[in-house]
Design brief:
The protein is an alpha/beta fold. It folds into two domains: 4-187 and 254-322, TIM Barrel; 220-253 and 324-347, no CATH class. The chain contains 15 helices and eleven strands. The strands form two sheets. Strands 10-9-1-2-3-4-5-6-11 form a nine-stranded mixed β-sheet. Helix 3 (69-77) runs parallel beside helix 4 and helix 9 (223-238) packs antiparallel against helix 15 (333-343). The longest helix has 16 residues, at 223-238. The protein is globular, with a radius of gyration of 21 Å. 39% of the residues are buried.
Length: 352
């Protein structure tokens, strides 16, 4: 029984965050979006909605880019589905956000918004490139005015460049009636990004570059564990690895699909076990496209098959779990990197 569904209702986004897959691989992005009809077709029965957690997020887009997103949330939450929405808050009019707040208030405990703002007025736009804080502030206020009592959380990635605004953001969240949390991502602990911002000065556009980095206590606490997994992945590619070590790593995998009854629906209406493998498919990491091309065309496309039909496919029934072994022909090291060592790689959220 599926308990969680992540919905990437669009591959479109107003921002250009330097660490995002759609920014780094912009040449690969095709704009696709869900409609309300897609949602009602996928989930026509209240029994398949009630008590299910629907996460509006994804790899490539911001759900608020889709005007009909509020109708989707209204449809699912009014039938007992829990809807969590991650957004940069920088699009749509205040009326749109007011209606979203009203839907949240009308369905207590079933709608929660994550406003993902990495800074305040001075710094949010440095990572959330192309967003405008005054618009975000206006939209958050419109939501808060219609949904009091902690229907939203401000989630803040702490970088070196925005750490000084942390308390200001926390105080702002409190005034809005939002919870406040910091987020640490493993990618940010391993990589530095370059943000190039343009500003008009004396009738000319001037470019300024910022280094986006995370150091010291702001790094992910399990960085060393993931480094060991990377070492295992490299070793298993080039030499024989002891079965005891393989079993130890494979048995430490906590899979979103296999162990947590979660699925991911991408913006092109293909169904995946998780956001990580959709991300790998988008980038064609490890030749995943060729590996999965051994299956029939459209085998995981929801325009041709129902969710239950796809979940009966051999990949979902047995091959995913079997492929965790490095010697399997469909092996993808992403499963080890992202989900082994009890999900050590995954984001850390700390509520303040």
């Amino acid at each position: 029984m599926i308990k969680k569904v992540e919905l990437e209702i669009t591959s479109d986004c107003n921002a250009a965050c330097p660490g995002c897959a759609r920014t780094i691989h912009s040449e690969k992005v095709e704009i696709n979006s869900f409609t309300l009809d897609d949602i009602t077709t996928l989930f026509p029965d209240k029994s398949k909605i009630e008590n299910v957690q629907f996460k509006f997020c994804g790899v490539l887009g911001d759900p608020a880019m889709v005007t009909g997103c509020v109708d989707m949330i209204d449809y699912l939450s009014s039938r007992g589905g829990y809807c969590e929405v991650s957004t940069n808050g920088g699009v749509q009019r205040p009326e749109w956000w007011a209606r979203l707040g009203q839907i949240a208030s009308a369905n207590p405990g079933l709608v929660h918004i994550h406003f993902c703002l990495d800074g305040h007025k001075e710094t949010n736009h440095i990572y959330r490139v192309n967003t405008k804080f005054s618009i975000i502030e206006r939209n958050m206020q419109a939501f808060a005015d219609n949904a009091p009592d902690y229907h939203a959380t401000w989630i803040y990635i702490v970088f070196d460049h925005n750490e000084h605004e942390l308390n200001t953001a926390k105080e702002h969240a409190q005034k809005l009636g939002f919870r406040f949390a910091t987020r640490t991502g493993m990618r940010n602990s391993y990589n530095s990004w370059i943000a190039t911002l343009k500003k008009k000065q004396e009738q000319q556009l001037v470019e300024k570059k910022y280094v986006i980095t995370t150091t010291g206590a702001k790094e992910h606490s399990k960085k060393d564990q993931v480094a060991q997994l990377e070492k295992f992945i490299r070793k298993s590619k080039f030499e024989e690895v002891d079965n005891v070590q393989i079993n130890e790593v494979v048995n430490s995998i906590v899979c979103k699909y296999v162990h947590e009854d979660e699925i991911f629906i991408a913006s092109d209406l293909t169904l995946w076990p998780c956001c990580f493998l959709w991300d790998s498919y988008f980038k064609n990491s490890e030749g995943i496209i060729d590996k999965l091309n051994e299956f029939e065309p459209n085998w995981n496309n929801l325009r041709y098959h129902s969710i239950q039909e796809i979940l009966q496919h051999p990949w979902y029934k047995t091959l995913i779990e079997e492929s965790w072994h490095p010697s399997h022909k469909l092996h993808l090291s992403r499963c080890i990197r992202s989900c082994a060592a009890n999900k050590a790689y995954q984001n850390e959220i700390n509520f303040q």
